[in-house]
Structure formats: C-alpha cells, structure tokens
Write a structure and sequence with these properties.
The structure is a single chain. The protein has 2 domains: 54 residues; 254 residues, Rossmann fold (3-Layer(aba) Sandwich). Helices cover 48% and strands 8% of the residues. The protein has 10 helices and 6 strands, in the order αβααβαβαααβααββα. It has a 6-stranded mixed sheet with strand order 3-2-4-1-5-6. Helix 4 links the parallel strand 2 and strand 3. Helix 3 packs parallel to helix 4 and helix 7 packs across helix 8.
C-alpha cells in the first residue's frame, strides 16, 4: 500500500536537491569571477613589468685602465699620461668581459685624455664595435688636481699630513691649491683646449667643481642619446665618473667621499624610463649599478684605490 505522504516527500527531496544545486552554481560563479579578477590583476602586473622592461636603458661606465702615473702613485689630473702595460690589459679584459656578457653599444663618449680614449679603443675593439660614433669632450676629463699635479701621493702625505691630503683628494667641495699658469701642466697652453674659453679652464677643482663641468655635458648630450633608446658607454676617469654616479644615485656629499671607482672595471647601470637607476642585486652600496667581473677582485681593486695615500 503506497503511503499518501510519499509524493510530498519526493517533492521535498527534489526541492532540497535543487536548492543545493543552485548554491553550488552560485559558488562556482563566484569562484570563477574571483579567479578572473586575480588573473586580470596578474595580467595587469605582467603588462606593467613588461612596460618597465621595455623602457629600461643600459648605461656602461668604465674608468680607464691603470696609467703610468697611477702605477707611480702620482697625482695625474689633466696631465695626458699613457696607460701602463697593466692598464692596457685591464682595458682589453673589460672589453672581452662586455663581449662575453653580450653588451652592445650604439654610441660612446670619452674625454680628451689618451688613457680614457685608449681604454675605449680596447673596449670597442674587443666587442667588435669600433665603427660606432665616438664623441670626445674635455668636460669628461679627470678632476684637475691643481698644484698637486705630478707630485707623489705618499710624499705629499708626508709633507702636508694624511688628513689634509685626504681632504684634497676626497672632500666634495675643497679643491687643492691652484696650479700656476707658468706651470708646464697649465691647460691653457695645450692645443687640445684651444677652442675652450680660458675662463672655463680650471686651475684646480674639487669634486663639486668637477660635477659642475661634467653634468652639463650629461644633460645636453648624453641624456638625449639614452632617451633616444641608444645603449651608451662612457670611458672616463675616477672623479668625472664619481661626479656622474653621485648625480645618478643621488649620493650625499658625505657618502661620496668614501666612494672609490676601480680602474678597468665596467660599471653597469639599468635605468628606467625617467633615467632613474634600477637597483641591481650585485650592487655595492651606495651605488645602484653593478660591476661586471669577479666581485672579490673588484673589491680588491676598490681597496687599492682607497689605499693610494696610506
């Protein structure tokens, strides 16, 4: 005998089953919607990362290889000394390293001084890019060491004291004593500066004065090349490069006094679309850039520069 309550029981079961199914469908829809939003956010982040990568610029700075006066531990400044045998090898090795790591350049900048020019030659020869445009400018010259030019660094310490010489070498705004215009090192008598107004030729420079000379060239000539999408290499000098990295990394006047740049070591900057440095995991503070090569050897070279007047 069939119970008269059976049909209502089946209806209740069907109603319950339908309600559960609807709940599951709604939950599935919410889950899919959430997944879609997450996917869209991830895709948006990926697009932003790709956009950032698209607008990244590469800038390579390299201090010239060891010069004959570096080797003798003399103040060099604007004196046009040759690379030493070791310096030629350092420069060639830098070029080989850049070649190995796949760096290519569209344009190069250097100073009027042969130690930087020859370093650039080595780099371009080793990377098989000697055909690219090269622009030379006196504004990328080394800091002018004034009356210290040609003097032995250690002998100068013994005469004037380590504190005073360190102040001349590494302070931001204190220049060494002026060079006399009768000196053989006076740039006003050098034919390569014949087109430079005499008033612009320094008799001595602090790092601050060096920056005032370097940065107009950076802003007017080099920045437009980078913004045009060109890969740029600059072969210059310890202090003209210190002035430039201070500007790029917004390094304080106190911090820049302790920053030493080694000879013949490529320093690589990755810049965003606003030419702000993108910090690299191998950067040595306070720089955002990183040196190519064996990092222990790089640190040893940096220490060697630091100890030149010890």
């Amino acid at each position: 005998i069939r119970s008269i309550d059976s049909p209502p029981s089946r209806n209740r079961f069907a109603s319950c089953h339908s309600s559960q199914s609807l709940t599951m469908v709604l939950a599935l829809r919410r889950s899919l919607a959430m997944s879609s939003r997450v996917a869209n956010r991830s895709l948006g982040m990926l697009h932003q990362q790709q956009k950032a990568m698209k607008h990244t610029h590469t800038l390579v700075l390299i201090r010239h290889g060891e010069s004959e006066w570096n080797k003798k531990n003399l103040f060099t400044g604007w004196y046009d000394v040759q690379l030493s045998e070791k310096g030629n090898k350092e420069a060639a090795a830098a070029g080989q390293l850049l070649k190995k790591e796949g760096y290519t350049f569209d344009i190069a900048y250097t100073s009027y001084l042969k130690r930087a020019i020859r370093t650039l030659w080595h780099v371009l020869e080793q990377t098989d890019q000697m055909w690219i445009p090269v622009f030379k400018t006196w504004r990328l010259n080394e800091r002018h060491y004034g009356a210290l030019t040609g003097l032995d660094k250690q002998a100068t310490v013994e005469k004037h004291g380590a504190e005073k010489v360190l102040e001349w070498r590494r302070s931001y705004n204190i220049p060494p004593p002026d060079l006399d215009t009768s000196s053989e090192y006076y740039p006003g008598n050098d034919i390569r500066y014949k087109d430079v107004p005499k008033a612009d030729l320094p008799l001595a420079e602090s790092l601050e004065l060096t920056a005032a000379r370097v940065l107009p060239e950076w802003e007017s000539t080099i920045v437009p090349s980078i913004k045009a999408g060109k890969n740029v290499v600059i072969a210059a000098h310890g202090n003209s490069l210190r002035a430039l990295v201070k500007h790029l990394d917004n390094i304080s006047e106190d911090e820049i006094t302790g920053l030493n740049i080694p000879t013949g070591a490529p320093l690589v900057y990755h810049l965003d679309e606003n030419l702000k440095p993108i910090p690299h995991k191998d950067a040595i503070a306070p720089l955002s850039a990183f040196y190519l090569g064996d990092q222990d050897e790089i640190r040893a070279r940096i220490l060697g520069v630091k100890n030149q007047t010890k």
